[in-house]
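call fold(seq) -> tokens
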Amino acid sequence: MNKIIKPILILFCAASIVACEKDRLLPVESAESSATPVVDFQVVQQADPFTFEFKNTSSNYKTLEWRFGDDSLSTEVSPKHMYFKDGKYEVILTATSADGAKGKKLFVVNIEANKVAQIIALPNGTSNTVKFKITTTAELKSASWDYGDGTKSTDLEPAKTYEANKLFISKVVLTTKLGAQATVSKLVSSNGSLQDVTSQFFKNTGNANKSIGPAFAASQRVGDRWGVVADWRVNAAVKQRDGNMGGWDQWEGNTMSMEKWGGGEREIIDGKIEQTSMAPLPEGQYYLRMGFHDYQVKDYLYSVVTKANDLPNVNVVESNTDVLGWTRITGSVNNGNEANPLIFTTAFKLTEQRNVTLGYVATFQQNEQNFKLYEVKLYKQDK
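ret:
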């Protein structure tokens, strides 16, 4: 097993591995004294990303007590401390003067797993097979991989064959020689690992996690349900809801939507919801990953990426020479679980830097058809 060691860096609170939140003094109940301790300290990252030296710079004190936020404490002047897991830890230093006056200071150390170690997967020369590489300053003892497709491995830097044209979340639990652990995740395909570039090129792309806010925002609203999705172009064919709204539905999570249920509603013919990139995308391999709340399609629904400034009509999606990639969505699935959205992927490749337009085109003529979308994510293949 190879040991992976990168050059040692001594990092203060602006370190790339440790995000240190603003420290602050804490109020305390203190005896009357003219010599209240002045409490302060510095945090110094050690070579091991889980280990820190806490350099005391306090004054007017007799004793010190350090609480490191993991149920451990020290009374040393400037202790070193190792954490055994990534996460946030509240470090509190309490200084006590000779006559009992106290002062406290709190400092939050945030050990981020994806900064403790970086993972990349690159093609290894065999079809649909990638080789994982790990970069870290820690001395690794072992790795436990879950490749996201039901298979596992304990190789440190394994080669893995994936099914083509699908995306997988690969997770690895890394254990250092000192016994600390971090769990790092990476989105990968059969061509390698991926970087999320969504926010660089598109606005209002949704969110499948209600705990951090609504999915899609609306630019227009009517009543307590229907609207028009903001930052996307929504054509007249989609706007057949109440008040000429369409493309956005407040029900069950503020989703992007098209619907044709019946009861005299207009048919949707070549309904389009689309957005052109804010800037040209660099050349490379891309994956448009979509998380649906539900869909019920009897006629036609396509996810499309095109070189043109707008999406083609339904009947020419599969033959249009400007189309870079498409996925036809059929059938009926009602999931309704934002924690586990229904995933579709549209792959496309750019051989030159250029703007692209992506979105959805649908024809719903029969009744009881719809889709609701939680989020849209764009990923670029690592080189």
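The radius of gyration is 27 Å.
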